[in-house]
Task: inverse folding
């Protein structure tokens, strides 16, 4: 398919489906001919490339214009070094703590303890929030939702909230001291997860179930509040140091 | 199309006019022969680019430039947790593939030695008692799965507390949540496979949970558990999910997750 045989009028491709070379549109022509969504895509790409170019030209940021660690080598070197220990740990656990195989399934005999695996306890616990399910006086004290439906919805709400965190918390702060509020929310979430997990296996926890239920809702905000106070204090400390250094260098007139 | 080759492209003549040792000559001949058919050159070019990219002298990152390491070095080991999830997943996949050859998902009556055992239960028992290294294999699979789940949870906390989910990494956060859910479904479906008392009654809870989903509850229970009471259909579906569907899905989603991390780099603290 070289250019020099384009003047050869004999069409050898038979079907005529493939256009002869001199009719094949170039990429530029294709781009100009497109309409609708693909046209918009091309136009946007061109704009964004132009934007990059302008930014690069304006920038006095000589070293680098990427705000991240490259995965190689920074991340991978350390990870590969730690990996053998990690795999070793899995083998060690498997060799020393083999799993259990209980009695065979028996539909006619409900066991005293029914448990999912530990990582589902939190979800299992959310299913047991029946006491919090509001009952309406209007419909004669009936519950609006079945307790179990309420529990499933609680799961959806929790996961949904976690999913939209990036759209709620914006800005460039990263470390907990830089954002005491969100760090406190995180601490609250973790503590809540621990307590709700304990609640889901309350018949195995050596504690009064009512007390446990109350603690599940009292302790997390408390822990969150404490985290907030501590981080806020730490931040004040950092700011104090920074300010002191600043005013030492440039004493106020 | 002209059939005559241009002189420029007469590689044989080119090889002849070079003064080559037999080794070089045969190497080149094979290379040219393969390249004509497979366009090896294109791939070599890709490899070359890759090689130079990988060995590039990296410019200083933000952290290095402003010497910020002293502020948050203690976070760094936690940055391995995502990789650990991947590694544990691989270990679980390999040990699980091996287990899959010896297990059969049947709720028919199993070994007569065990009171009330199904075939599924008996095969697990056989793996643990008869198969060479079978006990260890099951143990390894179990622990790799447990450790993976733990690592994924901790990885999520690391991402949260280092604020690594912020722009431009929101998409990866959401993909992560999908991965976390899939990991838990993976664990759950696997938990049911031995078909012992724990498995059976955990399955029962699963059916009840599906049934209590508003509107689509019954449909979900039918789809996932093959009916409203547990039996052969349930076991079969859990097996299909656990060894066929989920492995493909999770592997793909992990690959996308890692590709995004590679493209965006690791979020630096400020
Ligand atoms: C199967 C589960 C998962 C695997 C295999 C995995 C793997 C990884 C790996 C290897 C990294 C590179 C950085 C690191 O190692 O920390 C990473 C980064 C990341 N992961 Fe995951 N991850 C998983 C689940 C999750 C979950 C549950 C979330 C959050 C909901 C998440 C969100 C993120 C984000 C936002 C990043 C970018 C962090 C940064 O740039 O510093 N991932 N993931």
Result:
């Amino acid at each position: 398919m070289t250019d020099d045989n384009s003047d050869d009028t004999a069409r050898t491709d038979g079907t005529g489906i493939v256009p002869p070379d001199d009719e094949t549109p170039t990429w530029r022509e294709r781009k100009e001919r497109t309409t609708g969504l693909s046209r918009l895509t091309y136009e946007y790409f061109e704009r964004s490339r132009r934007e990059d170019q302008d930014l690069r030209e304006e920038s006095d940021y000589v070293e680098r214009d990427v705000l991240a660690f490259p995965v190689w080598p920074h991340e991978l070197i350390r990870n590969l070094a730690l990996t053998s220990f990690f795999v070793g740990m899995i083998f060690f656990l498997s060799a020393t703590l083999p799993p259990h195989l209980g009695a065979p399934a028996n539909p006619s005999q409900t066991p005293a303890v029914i448990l999912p695996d530990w990582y589902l306890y939190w979800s299992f616990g959310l299913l047991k929030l029946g006491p919090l399910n509001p009952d309406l006086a209007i419909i004669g004290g009936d519950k609006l939702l079945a307790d179990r439906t309420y529990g499933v919805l609680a799961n959806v709400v929790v996961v949904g909230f976690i999913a939209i965190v990036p759209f709620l918390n914006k800005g460039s702060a990263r470390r907990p001291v830089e954002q005491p509020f969100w760090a406190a929310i995180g601490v609250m979430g973790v503590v809540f997860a621990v307590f709700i997990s304990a609640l889901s296996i309350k018949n195995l926890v050596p504690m009064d179930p009512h007390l446990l239920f109350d603690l599940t809702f009292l302790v997390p905000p408390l822990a969150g509040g404490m985290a907030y106070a501590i981080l806020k204090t730490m931040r004040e400390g950092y700011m104090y140091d920074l300010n002191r250094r600043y005013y030492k260098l440039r004493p106020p007139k | 199309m002209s059939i005559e080759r241009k002189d420029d492209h007469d590689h044989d003549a080119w090889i002849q006019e070079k003064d080559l040792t037999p080794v070089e000559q045969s190497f080149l001949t094979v290379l040219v022969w393969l390249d004509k058919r497979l366009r090896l050159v294109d791939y070599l070019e890709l490899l070359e680019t890759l090689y130079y990219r990988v060995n590039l002298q990296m410019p200083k990152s933000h952290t290095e430039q402003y010497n910020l390491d002293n502020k948050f070095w203690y976070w760094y080991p936690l940055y391995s947790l995502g990789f650990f999830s991947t590694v544990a997943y691989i270990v679980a996949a390999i040990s699980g593939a091996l287990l899959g050859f010896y297990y059969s998902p049947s709720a028919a009556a199993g070994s007569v030695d065990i009171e009330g055992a199904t075939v599924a239960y008996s095969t697990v028992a056989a793996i643990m008692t008869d198969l060479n290294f079978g006990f260890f294999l099951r143990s390894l699979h179990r622990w790799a799965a447990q450790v993976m789940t733990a690592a994924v949870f901790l990885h999520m906390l690391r991402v949260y507390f280092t604020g690594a989910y912020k722009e431009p990494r929101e998409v990866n956060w959401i993909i992560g949540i999908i991965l976390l859910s899939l990991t838990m479904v993976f664990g759950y479906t696997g938990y049911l496979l031995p078909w012992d008392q724990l498995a059976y009654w955990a399955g029962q809870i699963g059916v009840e949970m599906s049934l209590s989903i508003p509107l689509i509850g019954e449909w979900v229970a039918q789809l996932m558990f093959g009916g409203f009471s547990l039996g052969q259909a349930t076991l079969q579906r859990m097996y299909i999910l656990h060894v066929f569907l989920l492995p493909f899905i999770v592997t793909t989603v992990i690959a996308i997750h890692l590709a995004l991390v590679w493209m965006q780099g690791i979020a630096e603290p400020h």
Residues 179 and 254 of chain B are 7 Å apart (CA to CA). The pocket of protoporphyrin IX containing FE is lined by residues B 79, 81-83, 85-86, 89, 152, 155-156, 159, 164-165, 169, 172-173, 176-177, 179-180, 183, 254, 257-258, 261, 266-267 (CB under 6 Å). The two ends of chain B are 62 Å apart (CA to CA).
